[in-house]
Predict the 3D structure of the following.
Amino acid sequence: MVDSVTIGHTDAEDGSKLFEIVMPRFGLGVWQMDKNECKSSIIHALNQGYRLIDTATAYGNEEAVGEAIRESSIPREEIFIVTKLRRVHATGYDETLQRCRESLALLGLDYIDLYLVHAPPEDISAREDVWNAMEECMKIGLTRAIGVSNYGAAHLRDMRDYATILPSVNQIEIHPWLQRPELRKATIDIGAIPMGYSPLARGQKVNDVNIEKIANSIGCTSAQAAIKWVYDTGAITIPKSSNPNRIIENLQSLNFDISGFEKEFNLLEESYISGWDPTTEP
Ligand SMILES: NC(=O)c1ccc[n+]([C@@H]2O[C@H](COP(=O)([O-])OP(=O)(O)OC[C@H]3O[C@@H](n4cnc5c(N)ncnc54)[C@H](OP(=O)(O)O)[C@@H]3O)[C@@H](O)[C@H]2O)c1
């Protein structure tokens, strides 16, 4: 039911593809889940067919993610784990490597599937060292793939000057109320796949009357319409729910055909940022 996407790393020098790995295009975000909630939600989601879990050191639940994976009956290699280097930890080369090892220890895993810089490091002069350490994390096998999150077009452009290996993914807020065609294009232009977070605008838009009308015409819920819209842009998406029924509802969004409603979805655009937006920072 869930498609996969091939994510790849591009050589910054000559633009050649270095190697590629396959990841699911839909998964469970676990931000704002406490440990028990996180564990039970992941086990439930895996039983329903989810195979991608998005966590971060900042969420404080990497340990629970690891426990859930071990307690599930799904082999580790069939599950794709994303975690992120906390912004306050993105200060330099050694710290980045150390924090990646700490995430692995908390997860209790041998490798991460995709390790992301959570947001452009606040110290601009540290960005090169942090990324070089991310490359090292991948070379020494701590993670299978590396990427960024909340990088704007200018941050991505700058990476061409200091990266040896370009990111495979840029995780950014994307939903019908913040469609971001330019940033999605800038992401693809650097060889990365857009990964859309907060497809429901952190739940702030699930009662929007305009999407309700679209959803009624399609025969799905508003949440399903929003998630499927993000998915149909070609992005990977990771709605969060700790409600067992909604975990199923969100996965089932992939079964709906939303074609024919392009104009109605385009009219929802309102540059709506649901929380933070580091993409516009220097
Ligand atoms: N890289 C970053 O900076 C960044 C930032 C934000 C998020 N993320 C990632 O993206 C994931 C998803 O984003 P998000 O957590 O911000 O928000 P979201 O997925 O847009 O929305 C989650 C909210 O919507 C509710 N919800 C979920 N499914 C629903 C449904 N079918 N009907 C009605 N309400 C529903 C959830 O409540 P219930 O749990 O009660 O269902 C929760 O309050 C995060 O968990 C995290 O992994 C990354």
Observations:
- The CA atoms of residues 39 and 65 lie 6 Å apart.
- The beta strands are 4-10, 17-24, 28-29, 52-54, 80-85, 112-117, 143-149, 169-173, 193-197, 236-237.
- The mean pLDDT is 97.
- Residues 29-31, 54, 118, 149-150, 171, 197-203, 206, 223, 238-243, 246, 249-250 surround NAP (CB under 6 Å).
